[in-house]
């Protein structure tokens, strides 16, 4: 029998935060430590997942029928293929994750779906991701929805060249959705987020990096940001008029989200 993993993974911690069933005790321990330092950690994870789901609804309405979801995580209710295929049953989805267990669980769920699959890949190696036989499910001469939802924080350094490589592979009319953690306003909140980041990075295999709003905006170079632009992820096409989950809510303030259209 394989030995149980003892070091937390980004996928396992996120699953714990969302109340899923695919984490191990080490993931829970890392998540609880981050939560203690920054008590809105789990709420931020929920806001992130909600943003992803709203983006896919919106993209499906724009006519997008194929998706490349990199850093897809464990499948929880309301997966990209479920939302996309509810609007357009022929929608195709390629999920990519660095974590082998995430890939195995995803492919177990997708076994009967000829339009979706999950491959193991590192976002930092675009040639391997884009050249993978599994990615061949997508037709890159047609628009694709590229979903980079809370995955870029796990890549260190300048991710600009990486983004240019992925965006360069997309046909006009494609879209790129990005959410990213950022430093909150206010010294007290910022120090607490930094403490949570330190906890996370001592315990989790994939280190997390915070970026500024300007740095996140630059990730959309080569695309046209669609309204409302790069905003708090909670404010991006809110689910109903008047839905503003805490304007003064720190959890909402640490996560920015936006969608760019490839001209
Ligand atoms: C916070 S979760 C986000 C999951 C999903 N995108 C969502 O927003 O609901 C981050 C995911 O990115 C994956 N990940 C981390 N580093 C990665 C890398 N270098 N390449 C691909 N996936 C990565 C983790 O395994 C994890 O499943």
UniProtKB/TrEMBL annotation:
Pfam families given in the database record: Methyltransf_19
Gene3D superfamilies: Vaccinia Virus protein VP39 (3.40.50.150)
Protein name as catalogued: SAM-dependent methyltransferase
Species: Prauserella endophytica
């Amino acid at each position: 029998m394989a030995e149980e993993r003892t070091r937390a993974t980004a996928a396992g911690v996120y699953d714990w935060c969302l109340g899923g069933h695919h984490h191990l005790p080490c993931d829970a321990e890392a998540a609880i430590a981050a939560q203690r330092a920054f008590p809105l950690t789990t709420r931020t994870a929920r806001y992130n997942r909600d943003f992803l789901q709203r983006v896919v609804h919106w993209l499906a309405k724009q006519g997008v029928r194929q998706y490349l979801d990199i850093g897809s995580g464990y499948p929880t209710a309301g997966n990209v293929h479920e939302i996309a295929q509810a609007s357009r049953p022929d929608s195709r989805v390629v999920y990519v994750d660095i974590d082998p267990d995430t890939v195995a669980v995803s492919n177990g769920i997708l076994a009967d779906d000829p339009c979706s699959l999950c491959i193991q890949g590192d976002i930092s190696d675009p040639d391997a991701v884009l050249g993978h036989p599994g990615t061949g499910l997508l037709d890159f001469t047609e628009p694709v929805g590229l979903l980079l939802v809370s995955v870029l924080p796990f890549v260190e350094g300048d991710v600009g060249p990486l983004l240019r490589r992925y965006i360069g592979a997309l046909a006009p009319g494609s879209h790129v959705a990005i959410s990213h953690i950022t430093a909150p306003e206010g010294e007290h909140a910022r120090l607490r987020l930094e403490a949570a980041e330190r906890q996370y990075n001592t315990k989790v295999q994939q280190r997390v990096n915070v970026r500024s709003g300007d740095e996140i905006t630059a990730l959309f170079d080569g695309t046209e940001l669609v309204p409302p632009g790069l905003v708090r992820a909670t404010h991006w096409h809110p689910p109903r008029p008047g839905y503003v989950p805490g304007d003064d809510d720190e959890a909402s303030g640490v996560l920015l989200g936006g969608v760019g259209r490839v001209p």
